[in-house]
Amino acid sequence: MLTYTARRLLSLIPVLFGMTLVVFAIIHAIPGDPAQVILGQRATKEAIETLTRELGLDRPWYIQYFDYIKSLFTGDLGTSLRTRGPINQEIWPYLAATLELTGAAMFIAVLIGVNAGIISAWYSNSWFDYTAMILALIGVSMPIFWLGLMEQWAFSIQLGWLPTTGREDVRDPITAITNLYLVDTLIQGRPDQFITALKHLILPSVALATIPMAIIARMTRSTMLEVMKADYIRTARAKGLGMFWVVYKHSLKNAIIPVLTVIGLQTGLLLGGAILTETIFGWPGIGRYLYDAIGYRDYPVIQSGILIIAAIFVFINLIVDLLYALVDPRIKYNQ
Amino acid sequence: MDSQSILQINDLKVSFYSGERYIPAVDGITFELKDGEILGIVGESGSGKSVTSLAAMGLIPSPPGKVEEGCILFEGKDLTTLREKEWRKVRGNQISMIFQEPMTSLNPLFTIGNQLAEAIALHTKQSKAEGVKRCTELLRLVGIPRAEGILQEYPHQLSGGMRQRVMIAMAMACNPRVLIADEPTTALDVTIQAQILSLMKDLNRKTHTSIILITHDLGIVAEICDRVIVMYAGQIVEQGDVRTILKTPKHPYTEGLLRSVPDLRGKRERLYSIPGNVPAPGSIPKGCRFAPRCDSAFGKCHEAAPPIYKTGSDGHGVRCFLHKVGEESGEHVGLPS
């Protein structure tokens, strides 16, 4: 397992380098003079020259790239053109908000999706199966902004159970430590604020969870149906095992590998693609941070945001690969 | 019921739903398994051997299958009336089973130790340490060297023969009264086949476990069975003592099966094969089910279904009109040889 992990980690190096190249190229892909484009039509000559120097655009591109990599290694993501602050400090609260939202959404999606898939396979062609799979089909096809609005209308406006937008109660702001509010409130021993933060989290994470949940449920169902026909399942039953253990131990472990792939990919997608949900629910996440940065042509921020999301995506897939090996002992031997 | 009989199957009928109606795969079979014996069940694919054994384990996939009629008496108790929960106490504990494909019959994602211990923990209240001890004991019993090491290994690290030994160990975990082996050696090399068979014979002698051995290979039957049942198209066509049946087969089907076994010592000639195929369930011919493929069939065979005629005092029976009047006057006409 250790050598397998080491090998997988080594294979990441070229991927990460490729990523930095692409991100680095973004600013060079701007047609014309980037500084001019960034500052707009009415910028003074001095301002353009200052920005050109600040962006390092007056030097050859390979030196620029080298400097870029060097600063990445020291954890320096550059300076935001809009706020003039260091990006590596500014970006974290947004990233944390997105991580919290994605984490909650995937928790819901996996918990409900996997179990719905299992029960559907177990009682295949029953009313539960049909209902669950029709719901899953609806879930996949539902536009997320519409679902978000409907949630707000039903649970916030009509029923008044949950807040419509934001992460916290503005009258009682949460003191940020890690910026993961569920964690922060617990550290500070504020159960009341924890509840508030949780309430704010529910609607956006349910909206965000819908599509992955539906995909996971369908995937789990089909792989479970396949596995439950296997000879070793018959063996397990011949031992006298009850259906619960046959399903949750012997079948699920075999069926989960393709599902893990889907979970990994969906998590990566949510991290970068939650802009709609974040916008509807006023969630200050990385999607909205990037969206705003694009509006202001804040190129260093755009570069950093893309780099971070891509890196997380790559690492999630690494984790999925390691989980494969953990689940299936044959994988690490075969390579 | 015979005091010696441990498993008795009476008039068992198992059907599978296909499209619009139930089609019987096993149609009224009756036999008994005596304490400590090895009983062979022989027949071509599709003759209902495996369905019979799955029924005795309560593992008929339902739907589409169901036991329609008859009873399965184990130690005098009818198993067909058991609920799933009660079945679980029988399966793997009193009656256990090994299957044809050792390569796929073990779960690839759990260690041998885990899968063995699971079988033990299910039916006994042993501590973990005792369980591990019992696991190594079992592996030794089935002739696996370095048992402790194997416990930590995964199925893909073992050969087919070793896996089948593990399967047998698993089946023997709780000292079952009956072991059902569904073509246990079909997927194995000939040398490994011999080892597995002698292992089963050994276990039978040592532990006094009764064995039902399902096979299509009469050679295997000759080697280890005490009695044999020949099945054809969901029915028993002949049953009796192995020696009698192998020496003087009475049913043309049994005779055909025997003639299709290659003989290494005899003169070389084209190997006999019974013409035609086992009729598919649902398209069973009227009259004797074997009649369309039988060289000795006569008029009556196509009209009425023959019952089983007793042809001897040793329980030898045959489902064939040729033996209608019994042993003394019913001269055996058989196949022209």
Describe the structure.
The complex is a heterodimer of chains A (335) and B (337). Helix content of chain A is 76%, strand content 0%. Chain A has two domains: 18-73, no CATH class; 91-334, MetI-like fold (Orthogonal Bundle), CATH 1.10.3720.10. Chain A is globular and about 80 Å long. The relative contact order of chain A is 0.14. In chain A, helix 12 (243-273) packs antiparallel against helix 15. Chain A is an all-alpha fold. Chain B is α/β, with parallel strands linked by helices. Chain B has a single domain, classed as 3-Layer(aba) Sandwich (Rossmann fold), CATH 3.40.50.300. Chain B is built from eleven helices and twelve strands. Chain B has helices spanning 49-57, 84-90, 102-105, 112-123, 128-141, 147-151, 160-171, 190-207, 218-224, 242-247, 252-259; strands at residues 5-18, 21-34, 38-42, 65-74, 77-78, 95-98, 178-182, 210-215, 227-232, 235-241, 309-310, 317-318. In chain B, the strands form two sheets. An eight-stranded mixed sheet of chain B has the order 6-7-8-3-9-10-12-11, with helices on both faces. In chain B, strand 4 and strand 5 (77-78) form a beta hairpin. Residues 326-337 of chain B have low confidence and may be disordered. The A-B interface holds A 230-232, 234-243, 250, 253-254, 327-330, 333 and B 57, 59, 84-85, 87-93, 96-97, 99, 101, 104-110, 118-119, 122-123, 154, 156, 167, 170-171. Chain A: Residues 95-324 form the ABC transmembrane type-1 domain. Chain A: This is Peptide/nickel transport system permease protein. Chain A: One of its GO terms (cellular component) is plasma membrane.
